[in-house]
Amino acid sequence: MDDAAVTLVREHYVQGRFDAAIQAAESLVARHGDHGELLNLAGVCHLMLGNLVAAEACLERAAHAAPRSADIDNNLGVLYQSSRRDADAERAFVRAVSKAPGHGQAHLNLGMLLRSRHRLEDAERAIRIAVERTPGDHAALNALGLVLKDLGRYDEADAAYRQALALEQGRSEYRLNLGNVLLHRNDWIAGLPLFEARHAPDLNGAFSDAPAVSFPQWQGEPIDGASLLIWPEQGHGDQIQLVRYVEKLRMLGAKRITLVCSAATQRLFATLPEADAVVARDRFDPAACPRHDFWTYVWSIPVNLRESPASIPATLPYLRAPRHAASKWDRLMPKGRLRVGLVWQGNPGHANDRVRSLPGLQTLAPLWDIDGVTFVSLQKGANEADLRAGIGDRFIVNLGNRTTDFADVAAIVARLDLVIGVDTAVMHLSAALGKPAWILLSNVGTDWRWSGADTTSVWYPGAVTLFRQAVTETDWSGVVARVSQALSAMRAT
């Protein structure tokens, strides 16, 4: 086979011309027969283009053509993981490192897969090998920081992130990760400024785009007498958590506050007396927006106010269900029993959803044996078939699909005794309403707002109880067992 033709395929791939690389590789293979490198390149290009079936076919042919290639096994592992075939992915990565013990990328990929499967100690071992095999690999050091943070070894995670940053100073992802670990340690003075890296240009607006307004972004200037536009970012839960600052900003002298929010929270936030205007983001018109002195991202308020865990406004409740949203739910509420709301899965589009959500409602099955409890599903998208599969003959009131926005959810939660769920917006809302909220937390990628190992939250004192996966737990059974014990004790009182 002509070496120049193979080189051209490599060049197409390196320069991101994936379609051209596939076409050239397949043409050569058709004329000369299976060729491990060409099929591997074609498979990776198909993978980059999202053609998973074609990618798998190419890579499996490549593996037969070049059975000693660790690169092909590594790429198969990436393919299987992207298809959520985690067991196949693990076997492929293990094959890769057995064939090439110095293959740092395969060790790193294996470690990150093990982390996603909650096997944190195994993940640490694999990633440390990647660091040893590829000295100076900033991505491996950053990954080591992630798993060390999951293990609660914050000083070591801090050191790993700083090493990664020393090698790649312009990488905002690493600054953000360092900020997260500092915030986990309650070092808000150093952590909050680093947390601002979430809006750096190299993250391509992953957290939010800035509003197209002509007035300046607030950088912590005195707010007394000023007008302020608050801009939403990240998920509904972040907005619900941070909307408490509208009152504090007013108390600090802000003369006019416009709150822009998601459409799903607009009707709920319209109950805030301190907000002069509450506008859904999808209806916000920059050209029609009156001039304000400043605008700010909602998560930038704490850093601009130089907040600490001791100074955040934490009086509950700070949200209330709109009066007109309340009455229609009364007739649907069970009477005379302990009423417990459930939410077991978050937004599937969330980057961390695979580890923070439960596999399904059936994961909570130990709760069904507790007498005197009526469960209310707050899960959006759960149909009757899902509920029957998860709860069997146990009675459950399915209200999640009847809600149109968080004003409706608030009206339901106000009529419950307790809400149990994973880290989602519904749990933030329940706590903001002052309702007891038991939050199930993954041991992977735990958000800094639930910092440390405590079972309580400075954001929601007296309302939130945290049930954390231990670092050695690979499933939710231990957490659910502890929740079941607590619910039984609550029922007995």
Number of beta strands = 10
Query: Average pLDDT value?
Result: 95
Please give the order of strands in the largest beta sheet.
7-6-5-8-9-10
Largest sheet: 6 strands, parallel
Radius of gyration: 26 Å
Structural category is alpha/beta
The N- and C-terminal alpha carbons lie at a distance of 79 Å
The outline comes out as globular
Q: What do these coordinates show?
A:
The chain has about 500 residues and is α/β, with parallel strands linked by helices. It contains 21 helices and ten strands. Strands 7-6-5-8-9-10 form a six-stranded parallel beta sheet, sandwiched between helices. Helix 15 (about 265-270) links the parallel strand 2 and strand 3. Helix 1 (about 5-15) packs antiparallel against helix 2 and helix 3 (about 35-50) runs parallel beside helix 5 (about 70-80). The longest helix is centred in the last third of the chain and has 16 residues, at about 475-490. The termini are far apart. The mean pLDDT is about 95.
